[in-house]
Design goal:
Layout: E1 2-4, E2 17-21, H1 29-45, E3 49-55, H2 58-62, H3 74-83, E4 88-93, H4 96-99, H5 103-114, E5 117-123, H6 136-146, E6 149-153, E7 157-158, E8 161-162, H7 165-173, H8 177-184, E9 188-195, H9 200-204, E10 209-212, E11 223-232, E12 238-249, E13 260-265, E14 277-288, H10 295-314
Parallel strand pairs: 1-4, 2-3, 2-5, 3-4, 5-6
Antiparallel strand pairs: 7-8, 9-10, 9-14, 10-13, 11-12, 11-14, 12-13
Helix pairs in contact: 7-8
Length: 319
């Protein structure tokens, strides 16, 4: 799979292609449906599939300071899109100047001149161009002008609720990681580099990897979770993976003020992960954050949390 950091990376010899375009934050089941239809169209036409996405998130540029919590890093997003059959992923830098492009100029520069689109597949709510003036109807009209087919894919609804990135963010903010995993089609992942904390976990018998995620990462509500801890190489591929008990919060028992994401690899006290890029996958919530009267009370509860995390991860169907 090709990974292009902007349209300037597209080879001059690149021919016609099927294109799907969107932010695709989270690459959830609704996004997967769109990409699957685009891949099907590519197979019909015998053309490669290009997925266009954006970084930073357009909301941050259009509404500065909004900082939408991101469901995955750009690199992980690209990896997920590739796993769905994309022949190339083009990450377009989203700038203020880019946001000012009129709808037709957007189509001509990205889809026509940049990627030579023969067909374009998008979600039925797709908007484009300055002030989001373009919609699927206009895309179809411009397709007739510039010789490409355009198709809007119906949004995916589950129990009457549209599967969307904003809905999944709401689930995570409520700690409902199992429900979020259903809509994502996989556990929610938080990535980060392991940094040194207060090392209280080690002193208490449960050494944790303190993962420091990038700014504006979507982090579940404070509490304790069952899930997985994985070490990643420089390309983001998993090296090792361990079942884990995960703590999110401020460590109120010790009057902490800084919110952290800490993962204890079950029954492992021999791991040295400082400086390692890791992924923390959230499978299910065990309990909310609690301030205990003593460190001893906390240790007793941590023992119970580990038992619960072991039970959840041993039953994980992804094993």
């Amino acid at each position: 799979m090709y990974r292009w950091q902007g349209l300037h990376d597209v080879p001059a010899t690149w021919g016609r292609s099927v294109v799907t375009i969107g932010v695709f934050d989270g690459v959830h089941r609704g996004h997967q449906r769109i990409v699957a239809r685009a891949a099907e169209k590519g197979a019909e036409l015998g053309l490669p599939l290009v997925v266009v996405t954006f970084d930073p998130h357009p909301d941050e540029v259009v509404r500065p300071g909004s900082h939408p919590p991101l469901l995955c890093t750009p690199r992980y997003r690209t990896e997920l899109l590739g796993s769905l059959g994309a022949d190339a992923v083009c990450v377009v830098p989203f700038s203020y100047e880019f946001s000012q492009l009129p709808a037709e100029d957007f189509v001509k520069s990205v889809l026509v001149d940049g990627l030579h689109a023969a067909a374009v597949v998008v979600g039925e709510n797709f908007r484009f161009g300055h002030k989001a003036a373009g919609n699927v109807a206009l895309l179809e009209e411009l397709g007739e002008k510039y010789d490409f087919a355009a198709e809007g894919v119906p949004l995916l609804a589950d129990h009457g609720i549209i599967v969307s990135s904003s809905w999944i963010r709401d689930l995570l903010s409520a700690g409902e990681v199992a429900a979020a995993a259903v809509d994502l089609g996989r556990p929610h992942r938080v990535e980060g580099v392991v940094v040194r904390g207060h090392q209280r976990g080690r002193a208490l018998g449960f050494p944790t990897a303190n993962a420091e995620p990038p700014p504006h990462t979507a982090i579940p509500a404070d509490g304790v979770y069952a899930g997985w801890l994985a070490s990643l190489d420089t390309d983001g591929a998993e090296l090792e993976r361990w079942p884990a008990a995960i703590s999110v919060g401020t460590n109120p028992t010790f009057d902490g003020a800084h919110r952290t994401v800490e993962a204890y690899a079950l029954d492992r006290d021999d791991l040295d992960l400082y400086g390692v890029h890791v992924a923390v996958d959230f499978t299910d919530r065990i309990r909310g954050q609690v301030k205990f009267e003593s460190a001893g009370d906390l240790v007793k509860q941590m023992g119970k949390d580990v038992v619960a995390a072991r039970r959840v991860t041993s039953a994980d169907p992804s094993l």
